Amino acid sequence: MKKIERVYTVYVEEIILKSSQIDDKFTVFMFAQENVVNSQEWYPKFYYKSKLSKTTQLGALKEKFMISKYHVFHFDAKQPQSVIASQYIDGLVEFTFDLRITNQFTLASLASQKLYTGPIPIAKKKMDDLKKMKNYIPEASAGFWRDRYDWPEI
Questions:
Q1: Measured between alpha carbons, how far is 91 from 85 in angstroms, rounded to an integer?
Q2: How far apart are CA 124 and CA 96, in angstroms?
Q3: What is the pLDDT of residue 1?
Q4: Radius of gyration, CA atoms only, the chain
Q5: Residue ranges with strand state E in 6-116
Q6: Tens of pLDDT along 103-115?
Q7: Is residue 64's pLDDT more than 50?
Q8: Residues contacting 152, CB < 8 A, separation 6+
Q9: C-alpha to C-alpha distances, 98 to 2, 13, 82, 128, 129, nearest whole angstrom
Q10: Cα gap 6→130, rounded to integer Å
């Protein structure tokens, strides 16, 4: 805590992010826990788990899609099945992956099973660290953090 001036709640961070956007290039909204659905239920029906890059399928170098390997992703509404991935911001080497199995699906056909039915358990060490911050949290944000202190620990 000595290195930072204050701790923001996610609600304040949302306001800061919304006020920082220029020309409406992105949308900022609060994503609620009840919006998180079980992607393992629907993902395999519509997307490949692993796929070779379109640019390297015929060449000697076979580039497989591994999400942890790439740091920059570009999507194009004209080609919704494709993702362009790069390891670096403004990197010279990019790979195009066609990840969608089918072009036709609706949001209604996606998962309806919620992934979380209650608060997500927090590691005991992390909860201890959060409780050490109590003295530094402004009263306006105290309610948000009090709710978190009641979450289950693992």
A1: 10
A2: 41
A3: 45
A4: 21
A5: 72-76, 79-86, 95-98
A6: 666 666 666 677 7
A7: yes
A8: 118, 119, 121, 122
A9: 47, 34, 4, 44, 43
A10: 14
CA angle 34, 36, 42 (to 5 degrees): 130
Task: Record the tokens describing residue 73, joined without a space.
Answer: 């992703």
**Residue 2: enclosing H or E segment and its boundaries?**
none
Bridge partners for 15 per DSSP: none
φ, ψ for residue 51 (rounded to 5)? -145, 145
DSSP run (H or E) holding 15? helix 10-20
**Can you tell me the distance from the alpha carbon of 71 to that of 66, in angstroms, rounded to the nearest whole number?**
11
Report the C-alpha gap between 114 and 28 in whole angstroms. 22
**pTM here?**
0.47
